[in-house]
Amino acid sequence: MTESRPMLKDRKEILKDIEPIRFGTSGLRDLVSAMTDMECYINARGFIRFLKERGEISAGERIAVGGDRRSSTPRIIAAVVEAVRAEACGAVYTGLVPSPVLANYSLRSGMPSIMVTGSHIPDDRNGIKFTKTTGEVLKSDEADILRNVASAREEEYSKSWDETAFGADGMFREGKELPEASDEAEKMYLKRYLDVFPPDCLKGRKIVLYQHSAVGRDLVAAVFSGLGAEVVPVGRSEEFVPVDTEKISASTADILSRSAREHSPFAIISTDGDSDRPLLADENGHFLPGDKLGALVSMYLEPDFAAIPVSVNPAVVKALAAEGIEVRQTRIGSPYVIAAMNDKLAEDPEAGVVSWESNGGFLTGSDWNIDGKRLPALPTRDAVLPMLAVMLLAAREDKKISEVASSKLPPFYTAAGVVDNKDEGAESYTSEMGREIIRSFSPDKAPVREAEFDVSGQAAVLKAECGERTPELDRELLEIRSRLKKYFSPDKGFGEIKSLNFLDGIRITFVTAEGREEVSHLRPSGNAPEFRNYAAAGSEERAKEIADKRYEIVPEMVADIGAG
User: Fold this and answer.
1) Is residue 119 annotated as part of the catalytic site, yes or no?
2) Is there a shared CATH topology between the 8-185 domain and the 414-563 domain?
3) Are 387 and 280 spatial neighbours (Cβ–Cβ below 8 Å)?
4) Which of 33, 120, 278, 373 is disulfide-compatible with 383, CB 3.0–4.6 A?
């Protein structure tokens, strides 16, 4: 052992202080500094052992591996490939590709996949997303995966400095080369659209593509130009740009409006970093929120069933009901909407089943007939289908994108925002504190999905979706409502609280003096010190105003929790 190498006892001291990366809403995510080669290697080995335990893969079989364009991705992919090899499996490296491209390839090829991506979050963070041979990892899989990760961790941690491949910093001592990349996954995804939709279905339509650093920027251009559109690329960047399709930044909004003025397009499109979340703006550069986008896609596809998270615009639920589409609302995150789709298909295997999230990512749980051709199911977030479907809906009705949106969807608007530990008054905020805030406003007398209240002046619970309703539960719900009024008071511009939904965070519906409904939905991030406020109201300005109230309300809650 060289003099510079730490002693064995020093390695044990180092390892005991490592904080494992954790599952968030969908997949593992953390700061890049926490995603060391060793940590990523351990988690990938745990996932592969989970697959072996479930009988989905055996030694010698293949696992597809890909990633996005953020700076840390190649290093993490190398760690994942080493984990695949350590488990005596073969790694099929697809190169840097969109998440739906990798998922489509692995599902069609009957192999699991591992995608290295942090999605829309900044470059100082990254993540790992797992897909089984049957589809995305669900919440019900996480306990078994984590048990296998713990086993892989114990095995690695028991090694001496001479036995381990990692240094004291958790990085490989020797650099690892990536395998040669295959373009088979990209070709398969391109054929998915060009073989099904008519080659001239977008002929004569000018589409601006905001490319930034999206991993799918060239592939998205190839799809739309292959369907006859004139694609005008703008804003290409070799540095990573975090584009959040759920919360459009001022810089992105400026690019959309400027592109509309300069190019007079039919539509403006983009995606987030791993190109599984769509961004669609109309001919004027006005962004179409993802929940409304999904509703328009459903009006094009005409499904029997849609699973959507509780955070979506209430107008979307009404619009789908008017179309005769069965709606089931879930907790936020693709694992939950996928589980709801699976449940519906178990009830009715012939049903046309879709789902989407507020970020616009669209999932198809069943195959689709498009003018006599089969579009296979892709039960993972996809960005191309929703953008394409809305354009085809507008083209079919000979309307502009803005006209389709205004004619088919009620005028109800959403906005969203985040408070984190860098905001004034919330410096002490932590993820655990966010969970404690939600617990403090959640009933513990019985599990309740939703409660409705009398807003005519009577202190009464009209309805409570729960296992057993009791007078004690009613009193607790009224007490929660009363405590929330302290933060959402008339002085802050809020009406009476009409209902509380506890499915995922706390979704508060208010009724104004004029009888209008408004929403503030509070939800902490599962793996970051962030607290979100999803708002909905009858105007864009009012929705933004409600979302911005987070800067006042959340610090008040943080102070009260800290004092309590």
Assistant:
1) yes
2) no
3) yes
4) 278
Closest CA to 223 of 186, 259, 256: 186
For 123-151, write each residue's pLDDT tens digit.
899 999 999 999 999 889 999 999 999 99
CB 252 within 8 A of CB 273: no
Q: What would the DSSP string read from start to end of 334-381?
A: HHHHHHHHHHHHHH-TTS-EEEE-TT--EEESS-EEETTEEE--EEEE
Q: Is the pLDDT of residue 1 over 90?
A: no
d(CA 87, CA 10): 28
Q: 205-411, what's its fold?
A: Alpha-D-Glucose-1,6-Bisphosphate; Chain A, domain 3 (3.40.120)
Mean local confidence (pLDDT), 304-313:
93
Q: Which two tokens stand for residue 94?
A: 């697809």
* Domain spans, the chain: 8-185, 205-411, 414-563
Q: Distance between CA 341 and CA 532 in Å, rounded?
A: 26
Q: What is the pLDDT of residue 465?
A: 81
Domain 8-185 has CATH 3.40.120.10: yes
Distance CA 125, CA 29 (A): 7
- In this prediction the pTM is 0.88
Burial 508-535 (b: 16+ CB within 10 A, else e): bbbbeeeeebbbbbbbbbbbbbbbbbbb
C-alpha distances out from residue 497 to 42, 156, 500, 501, Å: 47, 53, 8, 11
Interacting residues of 304 by C-beta distance below 8 A, sequence separation 6+? 325, 326, 348, 351, 352, 353
Q: Which of 106, 113, 119, 520 is catalytic?
A: 119
222: exposed, middle or buried (C-beta count within 10 Å: 0-12, 13-18, 19+)?
middle
Task: Please tell me whether residue 247 adopts helix, strand or coil conformation.
Answer: coil
d(CA 299, CA 303): 8
Decide if 311 contacts 332 (C-beta within 8 A): yes
**Inter-residue contact 448 to 464 (CB < 8 Å):** yes
C-alpha Rg value of the chain to the nearest Å: 24
pLDDT, tens digit, for every residue of 54-110?
999 999 999 999 999 999 999 999 999 999 999 999 999 999 999 999 999 999 999
Q: Tell me the per-residue pLDDT of 7-45, one tens digit each, with 9 for 90 and over.
A: 545 666 667 777 787 777 668 888 999 999 999 999 999
What span, in angstroms and rounded, lies between the C-alpha atoms of 172 and 193?
A: 40
CA neighbor of 25 nearest in space, from 317, 277, 270 = 277
What CATH code is assigned to 414-563? 3.30.310.50
Cβ neighbors of 392 (< 8 A, separation 6 or more) are 197, 201, 202, 300
- Measured between alpha carbons, how far is 544 from 176 in angstroms, rounded to an integer? 47
